[in-house]
């Protein structure tokens, strides 16, 4: 199959959508950090990317920002916020299901989190991982498509997340505090994350309960705690504790794991026939906002790397209440200029780089991915 140029995007996406008309389609993307609208970009590479997501029955993403009208509540430096209009922008993009359990959920405090939930509801976007109290944050959300019922549970893995009153607004945290091995004085702050057994059991119980009421259980798992600096290796390798926790999730009944957090792609593993996307990377990475002093992202050690702006849209076909096919649509984002962090379908050079990376990363788990023209497909 010939590699499509930009003028071929309409034809290519038409064929992609037509070939899956008999399936239920789920698209999944990684972290979304907006600071401006993108759905009005007129170029085919943008509009046809949106068509891929809009053409799905369910479009999932991890919303790593706040939707609220109270910027004065900002806490810290790296905070991301837009107002009510961005609920509609997310829906226009084709995203109708989001995970909220992540390290930016409380950027604007409990009022900001409550505002985010209100705006998502009024925009028609379902969410999991946050709630008016801990019980609500731990609960699944359900979506019905034809005769197949989906459940979403959203978790954040944190090593030092503060305890909150269970009756107050909360997110769903699976704690993994650091432990220090014999001979480690702990002064370098490294240590090894050790998921709390009680939290892992709570995750398993939540999945078992969700599976009783759904055919397909989606688990969004946000693992952020990685260095953002060229002084450290690229965080594209999967921590052993994450792999073990997600095996437990599938053993409990999860059907698809949707990882996010490290801001780069990680590999895909098929465990007992169920896909684990260890990280879908950044889908929209507009992190340079007026609230962040320019010096923070201009320091040499903090300069962006290309891998933070490369990603895929995972496109899953569901047939007979099981995943029957997985396609990987390569997406790249501009790194400079007014469209920094805005996603579009990847051109030939970017596509080869992105698919080559996800093929190599997934090979570590024995997962084979073939290139089908302009996208990848899990074998």
Named CATH architecture: 4-Layer Sandwich
CATH superfamily: Metallo-dependent phosphatases
- Look at the structure and give the mean pLDDT: 89
- Tell me about the biggest sheet? 10 strands, mixed
Distance between the termini: 18 Å
CATH topology: Purple Acid Phosphatase, chain A, domain 2
Total number of domains? 1
Low-pLDDT ranges: 1-5
Characterization of this structure:
The chain is of the alpha/beta class. It contains 9 helices and 23 strands. The strands form 5 sheets. Strands 1, 2, 5, 6, 18, 19, 20, 21, 22 and 23 form a 10-stranded mixed sheet that branches.
Topology:
Elements: H1 9-18, E1 24-33, H2 44-54, E2 58-63, E3 66-67, E4 81-82, H3 85-93, E5 97-99, H4 109-122, E6 126-128, E7 130-131, H5 134-138, E8 141-145, E9 148-158, E10 170-171, E11 173-175, E12 178-179, E13 192-193, H6 197-212, E14 216-223, H7 240-252, E15 256-260, E16 268-271, E17 274-277, E18 282-285, H8 294-298, E19 310-319, E20 322-333, E21 343-345, H9 348-363, E22 369-372, E23 375-378
Parallel strand pairs: 1-2, 1-18, 2-5, 3-4, 5-6, 9-11, 9-14, 14-15, 15-17
Antiparallel strand pairs: 1-19, 7-10, 8-9, 12-13, 16-17, 19-20, 20-21, 20-23, 22-23
Helix pairs in contact: 1-2, 6-7
Quick tags:
379 residues; 10-stranded mixed beta sheet; 7-stranded mixed beta sheet; globular
Gist of the model:
The chain has 379 residues and is an alpha/beta fold. Helices cover 26% and strands 29% of the residues.
